[in-house]
Design a protein that fits this description.
It is a single chain. By secondary structure, the chain is mainly β. The chain has a domain of 31 residues. It contains no helices and 3 strands. It has a 3-stranded mixed β-sheet, with no helix packed on it. Strand 1 and strand 2 form a beta hairpin. It is rod-shaped. The protein binds zinc ion (ZN). The site of zinc ion has 7 residues, from loops. The site of zinc ion (ZN) has 7 residues, from loops.
Length: 57
């Protein structure tokens, strides 16, 4: 008896990138299971304010 299953799995985007600030889903990643990754969306209120290089000294 042989189990005829395709060895190549379809990559599903189970990883979601969620904005730390507003919980908006920014994007997805092909991961090996459900994963939640925190990041920042494009909203100016959500982006980290102490970004290097943006200081006007
Ligand atoms: Zn956000």
């Amino acid at each position: 008896m042989t189990v005829n299953q395709p060895s190549a799995k379809k990559e599903l985007d189970l990883g979601v990138i969620v904005c730390k600030h507003c919980s908006q889903v920014i994007g997805t990643l092909p991961t090996n299971g459900y994963k939640k990754i925190y990041g920042f969306c494009m909203d100016k209120d959500c982006r980290p304010k102490d970004e290097a290089g943006l200081r006007g000294n």
